[in-house]
Design brief:
Layout: H1 2-17, E1 32-33, E2 35-36, E3 39-55, E4 58-61, E5 67-72, E6 79-80, E7 85-90, H2 92-151, H3 160-220, E8 223-225, E9 230-235, E10 242-243, E11 255-258, E12 262-270, H4 271-274, E13 282-287, E14 293-306, E15 312-320, E16 331-347, E17 352-356, E18 360-369, E19 372-383, E20 387-395, E21 398-401, E22 408-409, E23 423-424
Parallel strand pairs: 1-23
Antiparallel strand pairs: 2-22, 3-12, 3-16, 4-11, 5-7, 5-10, 6-9, 7-8, 9-11, 12-15, 13-14, 13-16, 14-15, 16-20, 17-18, 18-19, 19-20, 20-21
Helix pairs in contact: 2-3
Length: 429
């Protein structure tokens, strides 16, 4: 019992001698942040997509008439000028038809000449009949006046027989006027008939000339000519071949001609960029096979509608090809400059994205409020060079518009958490 009491006293003395040590855990350091405000600035970015180089014009040369190849003049790789003869077909039936049409034109013109002569004669007969009518009317007027004068004389002064003879002359003059009027009407009818025949013969000449021109056009089709300056990329023609106009899409052309002074670069622009791409946008095209040589050009054409399968917009960039290095079918990379004016944006460092393909992705930023940061989901639009378009932010009542007064943490988002206390960097308010 005595031993137990001794040990108890020893333990009490040891406990009484022990002192409480001060805590060695340091207080956590509060991070500093810088803030930015959403700002309306031009938003520009570069659309980088692969593309392919194609000829500015690619024309298959096909026959428009059936015939035999008489001669071909150019082969693949040959440079040709506009209007140069590529090949000549032999079409004897069309040549014979053309000669017949030429003869028919001559016949129609000769018939027209005869009709013109008849019309001239008929017109002269009308003038002659008109003159005869004038004379007959003048004669009638003379005898009318003479008969009136005699009728006023007393029978004792003038013989009755003279009066009767004057009456007969008056009646003869009246008959002469009627006869002259009938001849005038007949002559006018002949003139009108001759004019109608002449007009018909004129139409016949026009019809014959049109038929001749059509036959001439068909014969001209036998000469295949280059529609523009270019280079021959295909030849499917040999002397003596029988060729005829294409009957379907599977027809093989006699030649294929490419224009080479200018080429087109076809680029498929993604849907997210398509709506902002404008005609005339600057572009730089890099061609790997030419040791990554770059060419400057502009977007000249846009397809307007997107391809349903790929949701892409076809854009065409024109490039001059004065040194003839760019060839159809070459692979290329295009960098197209896109710019939007007056766009509400934040620096790219102020926006972060979390999530995965299964759960989905969410963009967010950190807003500084009363010494703490609040993780705020946002909706973004286009991404530019170093800046991101911001559309909406999540507020207490749902999605809200940005006002431009939000204090947004500029960078270092990965080290922050929602509700964390922070300090503003020196100079920040």
């Amino acid at each position: 019992m005595r031993i137990i009491i001794v040990w108890a006293l020893v333990l009490l003395s040891l406990v009484g001698c022990k002192k409480t040590a001060p805590s060695s855990v340091p207080a956590s350091k509060i991070p500093e942040v810088t803030i930015v405000y959403p700002a309306y600035v031009p938003l520009g970015w570069t659309v980088r997509q692969p593309g392919s180089i194609e000829a500015f014009e690619e024309t298959p040369i096909v026959p428009k008439v059936a015939g035999y190849v008489h001669k071909w003049n150019v082969d693949i790789g040959d440079r040709v000028k506009k209007g140069e003869v590529l090949a000549q077909l032999w079409v004897p039936d069309l040549v014979a038809d053309l000669n017949q049409k030429k003869i028919e034109v001559q016949q129609a013109r000769q018939t027209l000449a005869v009709a013109e002569s008849h019309l001239a004669s008929a017109a002269a007969a009308v003038e002659e009949a008109r003159a005869a009518l004038v004379r007959a009317r003048a004669n009638l007027s003379f005898w009318q006046k003479h008969f009136q004068r005699i009728s006023r004389l007393d029978e004792s002064v003038i013989d009755k027989q003279v009066k009767e003879e004057t009456r007969n002359q008056l009646q003869a003059a009246e008959a002469g006027v009627k006869e002259a009027e009938a001849k005038m009407a007949h002559a006018e009818a002949d003139r009108q008939e001759s004019e109608a025949v002449r007009n018909k013969d004129r139409v016949d000449v026009d019809v014959a000339e049109a038929a001749r021109q059509k036959a001439q056009t068909l014969v001209d089709y036998a000469t295949l000519i280059a529609p523009f300056d270019g280079v021959v990329t295909q030849r499917n023609i040999n002397t003596g071949d029988f060729v005829q106009p294409p009957a379907g899409s599977a027809t093989v052309p006699l030649y294929v001609l490419h224009r080479r002074d200018v080429v087109r670069v076809f680029v498929d622009v993604p849907e997210s960029d398509a709506v902002w791409l404008q005609d005339g946008a600057l572009a730089r095209v890099r061609v790997p096979v030419l040791q990554d040589r770059e060419f400057d050009g502009k977007v000249r054409r846009l397809s307007y509608s997107l391809k349903r399968q790929t949701r892409t917009l076809r854009a065409e960039i024109d490039l001059p090809n004065s040194d003839d290095l760019l060839r159809s079918g070459m692979y290329a990379y295009a960098a197209i400059q896109v710019e939007r004016s007056n766009t509400l944006t934040l620096p790219a460092s102020a926006v972060s994205t979390q999530g995965d393909v299964n759960e989905g992705y969410q963009d967010f930023c950190f807003l500084w409020e009363n010494g703490k940061v609040r993780r705020t989901p946002i909706k973004i639009g286009s991404r530019g060079e170093g800046r991101v378009e911001v559309l909406k932010k999540r507020g207490p009542g749902g999605w809200e518009d940005f006002t431009g007064t939000e204090k947004v943490v500029e960078s270092g988002l990965s080290a922050l958490s929602d509700g964390q206390e922070v300090l503003l960097a020196a100079g920040e308010k």
